[in-house]
Amino acid sequence: AANNKRKNQNRNKSSSHQESSRMPSVGDYNASEQKQACKKHELYVSFRDLGWQDWIIAPEGYAAFYCDGECSFPLNAHMNATNHAIVQTLVHLMFPDHVPKPCCAPTKLNAISVLYFDDSSNVILKKYRNMVVRSCGCH
Amino acid sequence: QGGLGDNHVHSSFIYRRLRNHERREIQREILSILGLPHRPRPFAPGKQASSAPLFMLDLYNAMTNEEDSEELEYSLKGSIAGDSRGIRKGYPASPNGYSQRIQLSRMTPLTTQNPPLASLHDTNFLSDADMVMSFVNLVERDKDFSHQRRHYKEFRFDLTQIPRGEAVTAAEFRIYKDRSNSRFGNETIQISIYQIIKDYPNRDADLFLLDSRKAQASDVGWFVFDITATSNHWVINPHNNLGLQLCAETGDGRSINVKSAGLIGRHGPQSKQPFMVAFFKASEVLFRSVR
């Protein structure tokens, strides 16, 4: 029994030793970065909150999305959009709840209209029908 | 999806006060989308001198309904195909609720105390327009009487602030008529609008007739004059923009005071003051750069 016990201890020691020396790989993603992962948040922006209700007549506000946190594989000097899309897709398949899909395709937004005063008190009604957001990164 | 319209807001959106840096960043982003260098500082609300904001708010509501009915169409199709978005509460069920609402407004009698409503004529231009702009009348002092003893009212609008690349697809001058002075009984009155071609210090201006309307003395409501061609001309040649002149005559061609004809000028109630509105179409697609 003593031998078995010593053998087990050796094996544990060697594996943990082994682990700390390996480079972090795609599979280890969910280790330390989970709480910093980029998340998409929804926020209602009120023009009154911005102090702009004296010149924006309508609407009273709008629904906005914004991201907070670090991308899993951010675009930078080492990661171009194509590699990012490939890696992000792979990791998303493995951890769909923690890693969002890559979002590089142009996204057409809903039509929006804004009614506001200009400096001369003329009233302008602007309609944005074909606004397109092109982004690359987590969302 | 970042919609600008409170009717796109789902209950899941967080309502919270913005932090200072968020507020600055969002303000910067909105100004960039609107193409404005800084936030405008309009006159004090009391000085609006026109009923345009009420009219424009009406157009905005019509436009928002149109957007929603497009979305509605989508969601109807979507919901049939099993999309979870479903039908929005409180909106006309029929996808063309927009025209339905306008039909309703057409039925309102001319003697209405409501704010000015978009006419069917506006509807077509509205659905095509990317931008609608109403202009404040710049004439401060009313000159009611010409050298040749003709009654008139002058109006001037500054069209130089139109964003580059926007073309005028339609422009109207709107003025409200109340019941005429009782001494006109139920006589027919002709209301004409002229473009001022050349102005002279000591004689009548050179005028070009743009449009005219016949009305009974007892008629009450908005009169709309088409000034599209003139507006386009002013946009291309701002120095030729000398304004408009409005005149009223009896059936036998006698010039009468515009006020006694019942036409409301700058001193009437705000909901009935005259204004100009123009519909624009732009061509380029707006790309938002990635922040």
How would you characterize the overall build of this protein?
The complex is a heterodimer of chains A (139) and B (291). Chain A is 24% helix and 25% strand. Residues 12-33 of chain A have low confidence and may be disordered. In chain A, strand 5 and strand 6 form a beta hairpin. Chain A has helices at 2-21, 81-94; strands spanning 39-46, 56-58, 61-68, 107-108, 112-117, 123-128, 132-133. Chain A is elongated and about 55 Å long. Chain B contains 5 helices and 10 strands; from the N terminus they run ααααββββββαββββ. Chain B has helices at 20-34, 52-80, 97-107, 120-128, 228-236; strands spanning 131-135, 153-155, 167-177, 188-198, 206-216, 221-226, 244-250, 255-256, 275-281, 287-288. In chain B, the strands form 2 sheets. In chain B, strands 2, 4, 5, 7 and 8 form a 5-stranded antiparallel sheet that branches. In chain B, helix 2 runs antiparallel to helix 3. The longest helix of chain B is centred in the first third of the chain and has 29 residues, at 52-80. Chain B starts with 19 loop residues before the first helix and ends with a strand. The model of chain B is unreliable at 1-7 and 73-117 (pLDDT under 50). Strand 6 of chain A pairs antiparallel with strand 1 (131-135) of chain B, so a sheet runs across the interface.
